[in-house]
Amino acid sequence: MSQLLSLSARTLSCWLWSSFVLGLAIGGIIFLIKQHNIRQRILAGIPHEKLETIREYAKSTMAKGFTKEQVKKALIDTGWQESQADALLHEF
Fold first, then answer.
1. Which of 11, 27, 45, 85 is deepest in the core (most CB within 10 A)?
2. CA–CA separation, 60 vs 84, rounded Å?
3. Per residue in 47-84, pLDDT tens?
4. What's the half-sphere exposure (Cβ side, CA atoms, 13 Å) at 21?
């Protein structure tokens, strides 16, 4: 009987840990999807041509060795909102 009880406790413990890990994974996925949707809404307000131009600027500037923070500061200094710069630079 004690072996059966011990096995049941281990099974329960395994189930609890599995449920916890699964909950964390699902929560993480939901968080990432929400963040992606927020970035998409922020960028949706920018005309396509302008968005492509600024993406190319960011890509080429970082290819020259500038950091994301430097590109972000340049974007903000030229009138872009911080949320727009963050959403755009998350792609890189």
1. 85
2. 18
3. 999 999 999 999 999 999 999 999 999 999 999 999 99
4. 6
Nearest of 4, 53, 65, 63 to residue 80 by alpha carbon: 53
Choose between 13 and 70: higher pLDDT: 70
Q: Provide DSSP, 26-58.
A: HHHHHHHHHHHHHHHHHHHTS-HHHHHHHHHHH
- The rounded distance, in Å, linking the Cα atoms of 58 and 89 is 7
Structure tokens at 75: 């974007």
Q: How many CB atoms lie within 10 A of CB 85?
A: 21
Looking up tokens 């949706």 gives 44
Task: State percent of the chain over pLDDT 70.
Answer: 92
Hunting for tokens 């968080």 — which residue is that?
Answer: 31
Residue tagged 């792609």 (tokens) = 91
Q: Which tokens is 3 given?
A: 């072996």
